[in-house]
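Example for tutorial group B:
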């Protein structure tokens, strides 16, 4: 997926060694990749969940319900692996300025948790 969007910058030097390794695998030239890495199921999962939260590309902000399918393990094993990887995702996202949490902002607006409520001409409430 080619993108002209400004992807959030990721600096591996600001993370512990395990998280920094994933940052290197999900980034390209210092920014979040526009598409998932294909060589590793765990890196693909970390990329997908990170992209869901911070990517400015709207397609990345769709619910990542199949994100763990790239991890080659049984269902029970994937549950344990994703618990560990979710901590990596949280650390990566926490290292990105909140102004670049594009997916979080979009979903926050959809749920009326983020933004300023505005009344549309039809009377509906929209958060922006």
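The residue assignment follows.
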């Amino acid at each position: 997926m080619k993108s002209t969007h400004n992807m959030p910058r990721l600096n591996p030097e600001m993370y512990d060694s395990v998280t920094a390794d994933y940052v290197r695998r999900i980034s390209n030239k210092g920014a979040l990749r526009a598409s998932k890495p294909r060589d590793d199921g765990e890196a693909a999962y970390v990329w997908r969940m990170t992209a869901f939260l911070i990517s400015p590309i709207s397609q990345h902000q769709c619910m990542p319900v199949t994100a763990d399918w790239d991890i080659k393990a049984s269902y029970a094993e994937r549950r344990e692996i994703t618990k560990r990887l979710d901590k990596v995702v949280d650390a990566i996202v926490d290292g990105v300025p909140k102004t670049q949490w594009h997916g979080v902002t979009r979903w926050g607006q959809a749920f009326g948790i983020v933004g300023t409520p505005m009344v549309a001409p039809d009377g509906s409430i929209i958060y922006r």
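The longest strand covers residues 117-119. Compare this with the pattern of hydrophobic and polar residues in the output above.
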